[in-house]
Amino acid sequence: MFQSLEFPKEALIGKGWRSLPRRFPVVSPATGEAVVEVADCGSEEAAEALEEAVAAQRAWSQATAYERAGVLRRWHDLILAHEEPLARLMALEMGKPLKEARGEVRYAAGFVEWYAEEAKRVYGETLPSQFPHKRILVRYEPVGPVYGITPWNFPAAMVTRKVAPALAAGNSFVLKPAEESPLTALYLARLFLEAGGPPGVFQVLPTSDPEALSRPFLEDERVRKLTFTGSTPVGLKLYGEAAKTLKRVSLELGGGAPVLVFADADLERAVAETVRAKFRNVGQSCVAANLILVEEPVAEAFAEAYAERVKALKVGDPLLEETDIGPLVNRAALEKVEGHVQDALARGASLVAGGEAKGLYFAPTVLLDVRPGSRIFREETFGPVAPIATFQNEEEAVARANALPSGLAAYLFTRNLSRAFRVAEALDYGIVGVNDGVPSTPQAPFGGVRRSGLGREGGRWGLEEYLEVKYISLGL
Ligand code: SIN
């Protein structure tokens, strides 16, 4: 199947594709085999791309909003027209099951569509002055060249969620895709050029040495914005580096979401949505359910129905239509998942589904009676393991959720409207899904509080991250 799939393997720098003698392998987690070797960029290519980005920014920021919107609209259409190769590429390079990968292509295209429309709505403002001879004008201008670092778990949507608003606002963008999944990003860049995107406006530099590649962008005063999705430790480091040149930053960092299931919930729906919240992308999502807390009176019924559904999930080759659960991305991911399960079992939890590994595949797993001190309660598992524990009342549930270190997403299930508002407002999280296991969508603000980062992506908030405010005082 893949022998016939054409995809770019070179870096996109300045005016076009750059073939480099240095290469690194992209390894399929499903087979352990190298899919292809891609161009391995270093500091020399970074320095060149930086100059190109600065030059491209000038012209692109002066294009009309309608011209920018037109490019984004055509890019959107091309992404949708290439849903199948993009989905297959994702399945191949990072193991996302095909049917989910198709969904991600549509999700990714949704950001491009949204910002194609928003590009035309970057309105200025006029403010009343206290002086009759003065006028006060506020303009929104592009922030400046942007450097972006995207993760492997959503190789298409995390690219478009950053690139589309940055470009809509009139910025150039240099992307460093994850080492595990550069092919999807390069394919998106190819479609951007086909859509009439000017060379240099969007550049993609794959690398096996992220630190060396990032350094020139972090150190250069002319790069005015850093956007990153990834782990909290790396985000903290980048934040410190970006501070030295006072760059604007958006950091979408670790999650570890709690789910609160109240006794008054629609149990069937709570089970179905919590399965989605946990097992989407094999649990490898920042908003994945990490800890499921169920109110004592319904805990047994919930756990039984949950385990039944989890046992029905199909583990297998990500390229097969029926697969629900593909492999984990690499050995480190597998070892973390295994470590969490072993630790929980050693502390007294019981295993009601899954628990076994084969290659990089880890069977979808359900643990009951997980004890409070367990690692799985404190750390983000990023894998297909659902730990279930109980709570006695609303106050305890909210307190336990808010005691977790991250603040990206939380979920709650109830049919009581007052409780839905009360708990959603009390949860110290950037996103709250009420009776909804997958709240992510292009028009809404995605982002977290506390150790989950800074800034928002999606909707008008995502565009504001790439705009600078200018005030013009006009004396008549
Ligand atoms: C992420 O895991 O960072 C993104 C998940 C999403 O957009 O829903």
Automatic annotation (TrEMBL):
InterPro entries: Ald_DH/histidinol_DH, Ald_DH_C, Ald_DH_N, Aldehyde_DH_dom, Aldehyde_DH_Superfamily
Family note: Belongs to the aldehyde dehydrogenase family.
Keywords: Oxidoreductase
Chain ranges of the Aldehyde dehydrogenase domain: 22-472
Lineage: Bacteria, Thermotogati, Deinococcota, Deinococci, Thermales
Protein name: NAD-dependent succinate-semialdehyde dehydrogenase
Gene3D superfamilies linked to this entry: Aldehyde Dehydrogenase, Chain A, domain 1, Aldehyde Dehydrogenase, Chain A, domain 2
Taxonomy, superkingdom: Bacteria
UniProt-recorded Gene Ontology molecular function terms: oxidoreductase activity, acting on the aldehyde or oxo group of donors, NAD or NADP as acceptor
Pfam families (UniProt xref): Aldedh (PF00171)
SUPFAM superfamilies, alphabetized: ALDH-like
